[in-house]
Design a protein that fits this description.
Length: about 425
């Protein structure tokens, strides 16, 4: 069964919509419900600001936890405490402190590497476990923290997988690109990703040269100068590291300036597979490629997740949200699995249980969810997605492909 409760005196900055959702398994016996306290999970996401779309998408995964997880055996009571850090790193720190003061036993979030680094410091200081849903900067799990756990690839693994898939696309299609220009956001994630590309690119014998790197502010509303600079290189591939608003602005400007690259490819970043990207750019969103971790449609969890998503949001396509939904839902699952085994809401007991995590039945592509001594899950894979008809489709690896890759992509004036 499920129930909800409200607390008074909580500011909008502290708790989005001012609500606390309490979820418990339907089959959980009344006697045991009374005996076991709910695990209080503080969820930190950018529900406003320039990353609001991502935060709101991740929230859908959090909301689905009460619908999906009890039926998969996670029959422990839990309480979700939502906080908006407004796409601001300093706010993320203060919100994490506030959630802990309000009684959060465990933190989840935040979709942003800069915010993750700030929250990790607070979690470690307070002895409260922190389960990262999405954030790739490698330094987050290189600090010797005991309470930080990340179920998401670090930037080097993400980029190595993404570049390898780029080679595969070129090999499968027989295309002959000679050059690429890198355009990347200049936030913590973008800088870490650019650093990973600089280090890994020369080791992979890539079939093209990277001729220039152009950075920009992810909150920028005009990228005409940056696109003009990229166009002047006449590079065959525009390699991008984006968020969502800038991804839209970037492609729109490329079309406007009639820059006709062979492809626009992300080696491992969000933006181009999101529903907002399709809704805004329509036919110009097609054929963009994103090499990212993705969900396994053949996983046991896939059907109940798809059904629950359809019930809640009947007018939305799951594929436009699944990346954020999947990793956020898995973060709650990891937390409940640890609580179920720990039998305690104390930070030290939960952290010990998290270190022993071994979840084979999960949603996203990869092996069992396990954390190494640094709190990192190294078993997450990637897929090559290409946009067709308003949705991302898997084109590689071939054994799980929904369609063949199209490269070079059709020119802007040739889109129907």
């Amino acid at each position: 069964m499920s129930e909800t409760s409200n607390r008074s005196g909580v500011t909008r900055r502290a708790f989005t919509a001012g609500t606390i959702a309490v979820a418990a398994a339907t089959a959980f016996a009344p006697r045991l419900r009374a005996a076991v306290p709910p695990l209080k999970i503080g969820v930190l996401l950018p529900r406003s600001g320039h990353m609001a779309f991502f935060g709101q998408s991740c929230q859908r995964g959090i909301d689905l936890a009460a619908d999906v997880l009890p039926g998969l055996g996670y029959d422990v009571p839990f309480e979700i405490m939502n906080a908006d850090f407004e796409s601001n790193v300093n706010t993320a720190r203060t919100q994490a402190e506030r959630l802990i003061q309000e009684g959060a036993n465990l933190l989840i979030g935040p979709f942003d590497s800069g915010a993750a680094a700030a929250i990790a410091q607070v979690a470690e200081q307070k002895g409260v476990p922190f389960v990262i849903n999405v954030a790739a900067a490698p330094q987050i799990t290189e600090q010797g923290y005991k309470y930080v756990f990340r179920n998401f690839p670090r930037a080097p693994e993400l980029i190595k997988n993404g570049l390898t898939l780029m080679k595969d696309v070129i090999s499968v299609t027989g295309a002959k690109p000679k050059t690429a220009v890198l355009m990347h956001v200049n936030d913590t994630f973008g800088v870490a990703t650019k650093g990973a590309i600089d280090k890994i690119f020369p080791t992979l014998d890539m079939p093209f040269q990277l001729v220039e790197a152009i950075s920009y502010d992810p909150a920028a509303r005009d990228l005409s100068v940056e696109v003009s600079k990229a166009k002047s290189t006449n590079a065959d591939i525009v390699m991008v590291v984006t968020r969502i608003n800038d991804a839209i602005t970037l492609v729109r400007e490329i079309v406007k300036q009639r820059y006709e690259p062979m492809g626009i490819v992300s080696p491992g970043s969000p933006g181009m597979y999101e529903q907002q990207f399709f809704n805004t750019l329509a036919k110009y969103s097609d054929y963009c490629i994103s090499n990212v971790p993705w969900y396994n449609p053949k996983a046991e969890m896939a059907v109940p997740v798809a059904e629950a998503f359809k019930r809640r949001w009947p007018n939305d396509a799951l594929e436009g949200y699944i990346f954020n939904v999947g990793f956020s839902l898995e973060a709650v699952m990891v937390a409940l699995d640890a609580y179920r085994r720990a039998g305690s809401t104390k930070g030290e007991a939960l952290a010990e249980a998290l270190r022993a995590t071994d979840i084979k039945n999960h949603l996203m592509v990869g092996g069992p969810i396990r954390f190494d001594a640094k709190g990192q899950n190294d078993g997450i894979g990637s897929a090559c997605l290409q946009n067709y008809g308003g949705r991302p489709r898997v084109v590689l690896p071939k054994e799980v492909a929904e369609a063949p890759p199209v490269f070079p992509m059709p020119g802007w004036s040739k889109r129907s």
